[in-house]
Design goal:
The chain is of the alpha+beta class. The chain has 11 helices and 21 strands. 35% of the residues lie in helices and 31% in strands. The longest helix has 29 residues. Bound molecules: flavin-adenine dinucleotide (FAD).
Length: 411
Amino acid sequence: MTRNDADVLIAGGGFAGLTLAIALRQGLGAAFSVAVADPTLGVSHAGDERASAIVAAARRLFETIGVWDRVGGDAQPILDMVVTDSRLGDAVRPTFLTFSGDVEPGEPFAHMIENRLLLDALVAKARDVGVDLRATAVAHFSHPDIDAKAWVNIEFANGGAIATRLLVAADGARSTIRGASGIATHGWNYGQSAIVINVAHERDHDGRAEEHFLPAGPFAILPLKGRRSSIVWTETTAEAERIIALSDDAFHAELEQRFKLNLGEIKVIGARRVHPLGFFVARAFIAERIALVGDAAHVIHPIAGQGLNMGLKDVAALAEVIVDAARLGLDPGAADVLERYQRWRRFDTMAMGLATDGLNRLFSNRSDVLRLARDVGLGLVDRLPGLKRLFIREAAGLVGEVPKLLRGELL
Ligand SMILES: Cc1cc2nc3c(=O)[nH]c(=O)nc-3n(C[C@H](O)[C@H](O)[C@H](O)COP(=O)(O)OP(=O)(O)OC[C@H]3O[C@@H](n4cnc5c(N)ncnc54)[C@H](O)[C@@H]3O)c2cc1C
C-alpha cells in the first residue's frame, strides 16, 4: 500500500457518494481515511434548477450529519398533498386523496430543495470533515494478484493511482464500476420520459404539492421556496420529445392545459429538460471489495419521488455496517461486512421498485374501468386515517428496518 491509500474510496460525488463520505468520517474520525473521486467536483451547478423531494427520514440524516442547517432555510416544506385522477380535457379534476400534516408534530413528511444547493452544502461539509476530494474519474480498478482479498488498486483518469480496502460505486445509473464488476441489472424502459421544468406563478402555493394522474402518466407540481414550483411531467417518450421542441408559446399552451390557472398566470423559468424513464435493480449490490449505492444500484420511476431517498437509505445502511465493523477492528471491505449491507438493502429496494412500477402501470393508461377501480381505492385510503398515516410514514421513509442515520441517530 502507498501513502495515497484510503480506507474507503468512493467513485461519484453526487448525493449518495458525498453523504456516505461525510457519515464515515463523522462516525470513525480522522484515523479512517475516505476519498471521493468525481470529475464534476468543483464544476459549478449554477443555472441547474432541478429540485428533489427530500422525505422526512432523509432530512433527519442530513440534520444528523450537519448538512441540513446549511440548506434548511432554502427548503420548502410540503404541508399538504392533493392527488387527482382525470382525463386531460376534463374541466374539473375531482380530488381523491389528500395528505396533510406532519409525520411527527412539527415535522413535515417532505421538503423540496434545489439539487445544486444540497450538492454545494455536501461538498463544503465533506471538505470540513477532511474527506479527500479528487476532481477526476475512476478509470480502472483491479484486484492485486498476490492477495486478492487485501485491497483494490484504483487508477484515475488524471493518471493518479490509489489502493483502497473498499471501492464504493456511487457513480450513477450508468455506473462503469458496476459494469466492470460483472454485475448485471434487471429491469425495463417505460417508453415514458419526464419533462422537468420550474415555473413562477402569481399566487402562493401555501406549501401544497399536487399529483395529477393523467392518462399519459403523472403530472406533479411540487412547491419551491417563494412563488415557484417544480414540475415533473410524464409523457410517452415520443410525445415528450415533441412537446420539449415546441416554441415558447405552444409549450406554454400545453403546460397551462395541465397546470391550470389555480395559481394565477404561470411563467417557465430556466431550461426545459427531459429524462427517459426506466426501472432497474442490480442483480447484486456487492462484489469483491466493492459495494454499489444509489442510482448505481437501482433506478426507479419518479412517480413517488423516492429515487434519491432510496439511495440515501443505502448510504445510511452501508455507513452503519462499515462503522460497526471498523470499531471492532474489522476490515470494512471484508465479504461478511458487505453481505450484511446487501441483505439489508436488496430486498427493500426490490419491494419499493416494484411498488412504484405497479403504481405507474395502474395510473398511466386510458382504461375507464381501471380508473373507476383505482379511484374507489384512493377514496377508501382517504377515509381511513390509520391507513393514510401508514402511507405517509412509508412515503417519509420511516417504516421497516430504518438505519440509525435516517432515524436521526449518530453512528
Ligand atoms: C425526473 C426525475 C425526478 C426525480 N425526482 C426525485 C425526487 O423528487 N426525490 C428523489 O428522492 N429522487 C428523485 N429522482 C431520483 C434522483 O435524482 C436520483 O436517484 C439521484 O440523483 C441519484 O443520486 P446518485 O448520487 O446515486 O447518482 P448521481 O446523482 O447520478 O451521481 C453520480 C455521480 O458519479 C459521477 N461519476 C460517473 N462516473 C464516474 C466515474 N467513473 N468515476 C467517478 N465519478 C463518476 C458523476 O459525475 C456524478 O456526479 C428523480 C429522478 C428523475 C429522473
